[in-house]
Amino acid sequence: MSVFRSLLFAPGNHSRKVEKALTLDADAVILDLEDAVAVSEKIATREVVAQALIGPRRSKGYVRVNAYDTLYCFGDIQAVVSHGLDGIVLPKVETPDQLSTIDWLITQLERDRGLDAGMIDLIPIIETGKGLAVVENIAHAPQRVRRLSFGAGDFSLDMNIRWTMEEHELDYARAKIATASRAARLESPQDTVFIHLGVLEGLRSSSERARNFGFQGKLCIHPEQIEPVNQVFSPSSEEIKQAQK
Questions:
Q1: Is this model's pTM higher than 0.70 or not?
Q2: CB burial of residue 38 (10 Å; 0-12, 13-18, 19+)
Q3: Which residues of the chain are modeled with pLDDT < 50?
């Protein structure tokens, strides 16, 4: 099992940020084709991302494609499935059928391109009320799906929730995603990003809260977030001693 404490987003259309992100201490870097890329740049950015994945890097390399029901999802996946890709992050997942379709597509591309079957990971993001309502079914997804993740930004917008610094309003979603993951024998899930840059104590509190709910790591949007997140989601010396005992 790989370590997934910190997963850092990097805008796929910003070559320098992509290059830097791949040298950092995040456990995985997610090159973004979705929110960070303007519509006019989405198609051209696919090649930038594909080339970055075959270059040198310290971390696992993932790509967040556009959502299943957009004009870009199919082309995104076609463009990036190759040697060098560790996984696909699929936003706004709302039904198990969406995952089954994407799994089928990736399987065909793996076969066509000489890749080992099942080598490419698939991480769904739960970020709508509809997705959360059926998360138990989503969790019982194809074997390619090893862990779920939570996106509180779009979830808050969809649910008309006020996303506060304390994050008590996210408790139900976190508990439901963690429970569904456990029931389906998936790895522990990944927590949402923390959007307040520079507020590292708030980031630590958010990370501790997610860890207490059973999450194994957190999505990050800035390099400064990597170290605090890695620290929170790594076992303490006391926990290591207790496990050894």
A1: yes
A2: exposed
A3: none
